[in-house]
Structures are given as C-alpha cells and as structure tokens.
Amino acid sequence: AAQPTESNVDVLIIGAGPAGLMAAAWMAHCGVKTRIVDKRNTKIFCGQADGLQCRSLEIFDSLGFADRVWKEANHMIEICMWNPGQDGVIRRSDRIPDTIVGLSRFQQIVLHQGRIERFFLDNIKKYSKDSIHVERGVLPESLEIDEANVDDEDAYPVTVKLRTLTDEEATPAQQVTGSKVSDGLFRSNLTMEDDEEELIQKSKARAGESEIVHAKYVIGCDGARSWTRRALGFELQGEATDFIWGVMDIIPITDFPDIRMRCAIHSADNGSLMVIPRENKMVRLYIQLKEVAPDASGRADRSKITPDLIFGAAQKILSPYKIDYEYCDWWTAYQIGQRVGTRFDAHNRVFLAGDAVHTHSPKAGQGMNVSMQDCYNLGWKIALVAKGICKRSILSSYQSERRQVAQDLIDFDHKFARLFSGRPAKDVMDAEGVSMEEFKDAFLKGNLFASGLIVDYGPSNIVVKPGNPAAEQSNGSEKSITEEEFADKQALASGLPVGMRFNSFKVLNQACARPWHFQERLKADGRFRVVLFAGDILNPSQKDRVDKFCSLLDSPTSFLRRATPKDKPIDSVIEVLTIHSSRRTETELLRDFPATLHPFDEHTGWDYNKVFVDDASYHEGYGDAHKNYGVDRERGCVVVVRPDQYVGWVGEIEDFEHLQGYFEGCMVLR
Ligand code: FAD
User: Fold this and answer.
1) So where are the chain's domains?
2) CATH class held by domain 469-666
3) Could you tell me if 106 and 94 are in contact, meaning their C-beta atoms sit under 8 angstroms apart?
4) More confidently predicted of 550 and 97
5) Which of 368, 375, 412 has most ligand 1 atoms within 8 Å of CB, for mutation?
C-alpha cells in the first residue's frame, strides 16, 4: 500500500452526532482549523433524540439558528398524568405545565435529531466558509499522545491514524432487512459488538486508505461505545438496569384523548408508556418492554425486539383506549443504564464529550441536550487556547464543570427511571409500588432540572467563587475570594449568580430604541464580555465613576488593551456592553457615554450596538432589567460573561484591579 499521507490540524473531532457538531460549530465560529470525521455514512436519519430544553434553544440562538428549530418543532405545553383508578382503568389524574413559567424566553420543544444535525451542518458550513465538513466513512485506527510535549503551546502532540471505509462498510446494518422503516438499533446501547476492529481489519485487507493526522487537540464525541474512550483506557462507572424500553415514531389512529399532549401513563399491570407529540402529526411512544428481560450476563436479546412486540405492549398499556397506525417512521429499543466517565480528558489534549462520558435513559429528554452542552462548554475553551488568546489552564475547568453535571444527571435519571418503570402503588401500604404523588413531585422538580438552566459551575480561574482549588494552591499570590467578600460582590447582581448562565431580560438599544432580549447580544463568537451596569448616568457623581472605569479600560496596561492584538478592533477579544438606568429620551449616546463604550471606527463611525437602556419599549413592554438582575439602578456594577454566557465575575465599578486580575488569570495578555 502507498505511504499514508501526514498532516497537521488544530482540532480533530471524532464523531458527528450532536456533541461533535457543537464542537465543530464553535471552531467554525472562532475560525480554528478543524477536521471532523464519522465512521457512518448515514447523512440523514430520523428518530433518536427529539426533546430540546430551554437552555439548548438559548444556545442555538447564540449560534444563530434557534429560529429554524423553533419554527419547525412541536411545542410542548402541558404534561398529563394518567394512572389506574380504583377499578384499575387508566384515567387522567393531573395536568402540569411542561416548562416552568418564566424560566427562559424559550420553552421545551421536540424536533428529531436529524433536523438538528442538519441545522448544525448548515451553520458550520456558513461560519467556516465551507472549510469544515463532516468526513463520513472515516474512523480512527490508533491514537497516541506525545506526553513530553503536552505543555508545549506550539506542539501537535496527538497523533491519530485515520482510515477511510467503503460506502458499504460505512452503512449501518438494519435489524429488519428489506424493511422500509429505518430502525435505530445500530446506535442503541443494545448493540454491543465492537465493530470498529472488524471495519479496520476489512479495510486493511483490501488495502483501504489511511492517513496520519497530528492534532493539537482531539475531541472524542463518538457516542456511548466511544472508541476514543477505550483508546485512552478510561471507563464508564455505573450500572445497567433491568428495564428495557422500546421507542416508536408513528402517526397514531386512536381514541385516546391526550394523544397531542405529553403524557406519562402508568397502567395497573402492563407497565408504563410515555407519549411525546411530535412534528408532522407524528407521535413518539416510549414503551416499557416487560416481555424482554436481560439474561444472566445482564444483556437482552435484541433479535426478539420487533415493532409488533413494542406496539403490542403499547396497546395493552393504553387499553381500554384503542390505538393503531399505518405509518411508522422509525423505531428502536434500549436498555436503561446509568454511567459516568471516570475522566473527561487526557493531559488536557484529548477530551471526551456527550454519550462518550455519560449514558442514561432517554426519557427525561436529556442526552442530546447535555451532550451538546458539554461541547458548548468545551469548544470555546479549546478554540481560544488554540488561537493563543487564553491560557491552557482554562482547559481543566471542562472536567470540573461538566463531570458534576453528568453526575447530577445520572442521579436525577436514576430516580426518574425507577419511578417511571415501577408499577403504580395500589395504596399507601404498597411499598413495592411507586407512589403517584412522588412521581408527580419528581416530574415537577425534574422539569426544573431538565430545563438545563440550573447548572451552576464551581470555582475555577474563570468562575470567581470561594474555594477555587487552583488559587488556594498558589502561595497566596492568587488568593481565592472569601465567603464574605463573595457574598458582598454577588449582592451587587443577585439575579446573576456567578457560575450560572446570564439570564435574559429585555432592554432597548440606546441609539435606535429597538428592544432586545439581552442574551441575544451574547453571540457565540468566542468573545468574553464585560457588562457594565452603568447606573444612572445622568447623576454627575455616577457619571464620574463610569468615566474613571473607562479611563482605566483605555490605559495601555489594561486587560482590554493587552488582550487585543494591535491590528484588531478593540472589541475583537473582549466586548464591553453597557446597560444604564436613566431615561432613554433624556440621554444621548455621544454626549453622555465615554467613547470606550461605543468605540469609533474611522471607516464606519461610532458603534451603535453596545449601549442599552433599561426603559419601556413602544411595542414589547418593559423588561425591568435592573430589578430582574438584582442590580442597583443608581450605582450599577460590572459583570464578566464568558463566551458560553456563564457569569464569571461580579464586582463594583471601582473593582478594576480585581477585574484586571480575572483576565490576567485566564488570558494571554501582551
Ligand atoms: P451520538 O449521537 O451517539 O453520536 C456519535 C457519533 O459518533 C455517531 O455519528 C457515530 O456514527 C460516530 N462514531 C461512533 N464511533 C465512531 C468511531 N469509532 N469513529 C468515528 N465515528 C464514530 N436525548 C435527548 O436529549 N432527548 C431525547 O428525547 C432523546 N431520545 C433518545 C431516544 C433514543 C431512542 C436514543 C437511542 C437516544 C435518545 N437520546 C435523547 C439520547 C441522544 O440521542 C444522545 O444522548 C445523543 O445523540 C448523544 O450525542 P453524542 O453526539 O454524544 O453521540
């Protein structure tokens, strides 16, 4: 065979599911040289994940395609609970809102994973100027890390040998051959055989092509059976349960009244069912399969699982209501297992994300969301380090931040899956059964968790909170903030907890009066943001505070100046945004606000998109941003927002030195 070609790349992503595509999107938005490979050639598929939580929609909006998802999706408004009555017949026992009111500007929706992947691909193509595309039918054969060079900023210490498959090799086998309906078993956890080895051997035997890639960073997003994880020798910890569930996407013909609602149905003796109304008249049924149980080795025989078996179980649970279908779009089955990866990275050079480091039941609709959010956390960090903007030390925060989320998810799922799969209690004395009150309570709490909005990252050099381990180790030069100091600072913006995502309320553009959800201004372009709550700028003493802050920002030694390359606009690495509380009509952008807050460009004039006012709009009401953010209208404060919209630091307008310290801690300042 010919010698394999060799090349260098900044980032190599293995796997193009939701996690891998999110990572690729960051690289496209930040302009980082990247390749992304996937062993499968299935360009579009139906089924798989479909639930999208509020946080994922906020993230899509930051990337620029939430509108496409929002338009096409089915919106989930209400959840109905169905339980057996005294007579054992199922009846509606409760209704609750699907998304907790007021949590986000978005609500939970459903749209199948294939569409989400499509939107990602379009977005990546646009932002990478067509330079990043998924290379299909390509898989890694070996991975080596040159440990001697992992700390060298300029090195390409990870070497991966890639192999190209034939079309036939890259096409996943279907459970039912010849059927028009696609099944998703090849992606399900019931498929256990490690087929990579076989594919590699076959390809070698026919002298298939291979190449060697030297990468600065590798991200393993290759799903629950992750090859990358195995290549690193890392494990998933946790266990499989005995619960096996089937999933079908059908257009139902039924007299069940709540078929267009999200339903949780517990039958007396026939198991449980979840109904998820979908786009295009489709409905997804999640059905517990009592007929298929795992054997002594803990594995179920997937050859027994057919659409008829799954649907028969659904009919029994729904009885006395009738359900039938003519059209089935997709089906699969899975065994519920709850596992978390022991490690999420090797030498901060190879990272694992998504199902590769956490698996759990799909019913809470979390997998795709949490997987994408892993890479929403990781992508910008790798991009900014690869570009020499941030220090390598920020990469450690990926594992500390996301492993906690994965653990919380597993704990949540553990509880939820048991409540869901269990038989309803007959009465209070029925200890083996599941109390329906407990189930409803878990559902309500679960909704908060499932929104993705309560993620609260712990202390690090990019989240200034008490107890930062890195700061505590360094002999006092970088002291961790004390509980008291922190409480004082956090009180300046009580609605913007450090470590949580920057919540969104409406403000108006000072120059043109257009209302904006403030989060819409926090685009995923890799920039940190300093949000100056400027207070009442018409009060001379307050104006004086703001002027001083701006003159410090302007000084040649400020983090803002030193972070920005000489030939780049002043807002290219860190953007300063302002929200003030004076009346819009009494303030003037050019008269009342220092130029630093709306920088001048000799070719295009003043920047009119950086100063906002907390005032009433003509058409969209009043966002009351100061009240909602918990910020004093007179005195304001300063907040640092990370590129992924998480609050990193809160301080007084006078706390410039600490603000400078924040950026000295995480950025390469020139
Ligand atoms: P995957 O989507 O598994 O993507 C991994 C990719 O890597 C694949 O494209 C694969 O071909 C590729 N790959 C694997 N090995 C290699 C290799 N060696 N080399 C190259 N490429 C490789 N989640 C939700 O949020 N909501 C839901 O409602 C929901 N429902 C689900 C229903 C079902 C039936 C299933 C099975 C899952 C569901 N999930 C749901 C979970 C969700 O699908 C996963 O959590 C999500 O797809 C994980 O994304 P990922 O990118 O980490 O991995």
Assistant:
1) 5-450, 469-666
2) alpha beta
3) no
4) 550
5) 368
